[in-house]
């Protein structure tokens, strides 16, 4: 896709401008007016014809998703023919089945809703557990930017022999990918979750080394990283840092990590947080431009436009 402009919500101005620079197209702010009753009026400044990208980070999803749908509608009513959503963090991916009778499958609901509103969805390292391809979630074209190369660049600077540690079996594929790209050793632990803020992480026998970097796709309460950090220190590792993709960081997470002895945390800028150190805009731009994408509708290649 070759967009004519990037339209960004003001809470993603940095990302919108970065993406527009990378794509060499104009960046235009989406205006949002909040009515006294809590409804939103969304206004876009778009040229008719061609394609456009809409940018928003979708942490705090209940507050943001509806305005994103309104903006997609506004772009189409302004005559834009193809609209892509660049959302570096995709929410609601973890509920990918009914765990307890009576629940919804939120991953499917998001996939169907965004898939109807957009021609393409581009994101960074979505949390996919039981399915392996974002194309299975969306009816529209979907591109998942792997975070491994982004984290690997940072991990490489940590020095030879730094041990990379995935806290649970779900982290195996991409911990392995980061390790391969960074040329560093890795191990993966086993996690048992007993509640929102109660987890137990068990690590295998560790190779000798005094420094480790914990890797996780999402840090929410921080208890997963904290439990893994305690296990590492218990095993004799002296310095523990952490690199996460999506720094959701619920209230109290920073304290939880500090108390567990994690020296430094870095994250991608898919969610705004003081730990942001890795830019996602250049990779998102490449994913917008790519012609080869997967979806439930088009499992092979998609044309440009
Ligand atoms: C879960 O499987 C994810 O990969 C993360 O490990 C999890 O979401 C982290 O959550 P928290 O920080 O609340 O432990």
Structure explained in plain terms:
By secondary structure, the chain is of the alpha/beta class. The protein has 8 helices and 15 strands. The chain has a 7-stranded mixed β-sheet with strand order 3-2-1-4-5-6-7, with helices on both faces. The longest helix is centred in the first third of the chain and has 17 residues. The chain is globular. It starts with a strand and ends in a 16-residue tail after the last helix. The C terminus is likely disordered. Ribose-5-phosphate binds next to strand 12 and helix 6.
Would you list the SSEs in sequence order as H and E? EHEEEHEHEEHEHEEEEHEHEEH
- For the largest sheet, list the strands in their spatial order: 3-2-1-4-5-6-7
What is the quaternary state of this protein? single chain
Supply Rg.
Answer: 20 Å
Structural class: alpha/beta
Helical content band: 25-40%
Provide a brief overview of the structure.
The chain has 8 helices and 15 strands.
Question: Layout of SSEs?
Answer:
Elements: E1 5-9, H1 13-23, E2 27-34, E3 40-43, E4 51-55, H2 61-77, E5 82-86, H3 106-117, E6 120-124, E7 141-145, H4 148-156, E8 163-166, H5 172-182, E9 186-188, E10 190-195, E11 198-202, E12 211-219, H6 223-234, E13 239-247, H7 253-259, E14 262-268, E15 276-278, H8 281-289
Parallel strand pairs: 1-2, 1-4, 4-5, 5-6, 6-7, 8-9, 8-12, 12-13, 13-14, 14-15
Antiparallel strand pairs: 2-3, 10-11
The protein binds ribose-5-phosphate (R5P).
């Amino acid at each position: 896709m070759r967009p004519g402009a990037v339209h960004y919500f003001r809470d993603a101005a940095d990302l919108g401008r970065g993406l527009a620079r990378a794509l060499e197209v104009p960046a235009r702010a989406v205006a949002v007016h909040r009515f006294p009753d809590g409804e939103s009026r969304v206004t876009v400044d778009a040229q008719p014809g061609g394609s456009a990208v809409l940018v928003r980070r979708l942490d705090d999803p209940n507050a943001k998703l509806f305005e994103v749908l309104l903006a997609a509608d506004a772009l189409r009513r302004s005559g834009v023919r193809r609209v892509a959503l660049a959302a570096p963090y995709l929410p609601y991916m973890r509920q990918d089945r009914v765990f307890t009778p009576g629940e919804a499958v939120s991953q499917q609901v998001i996939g169907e809703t965004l898939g109807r509103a957009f021609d393409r969805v581009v994101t960074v390292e979505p949390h996919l557990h039981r399915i392996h391809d974002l194309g299975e979630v969306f009816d529209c074209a979907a591109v998942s930017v792997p975070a491994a190369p982004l984290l690997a660049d940072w991990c490489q600077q940590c020095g030879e022999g730094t041990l990379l540690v995935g806290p649970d079996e779900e982290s195996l594929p991409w911990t392995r990918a980061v390790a391969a790209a960074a040329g560093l050793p890795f191990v993966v632990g086993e996690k048992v979750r007993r509640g929102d803020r109660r987890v137990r992480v068990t690590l295998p026998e560790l190779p000798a080394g005094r420094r480790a970097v914990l890797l996780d796709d999402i840090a929410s309460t921080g208890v997963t990283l904290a439990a893994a950090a305690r296990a590492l220190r218990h095993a004799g590792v002296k310095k523990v840092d952490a690199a996460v993709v999506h720094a959701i960081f619920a209230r109290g997470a920073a304290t939880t990590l500090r108390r567990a002895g994690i020296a430094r945390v870095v994250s991608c800028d898919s969610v705004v947080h003081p730990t942001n150190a890795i830019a996602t805009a250049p990779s998102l731009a490449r994913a917008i431009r790519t012609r080869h994408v997967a979806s439930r509708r088009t499992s092979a290649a998609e044309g440009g436009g």
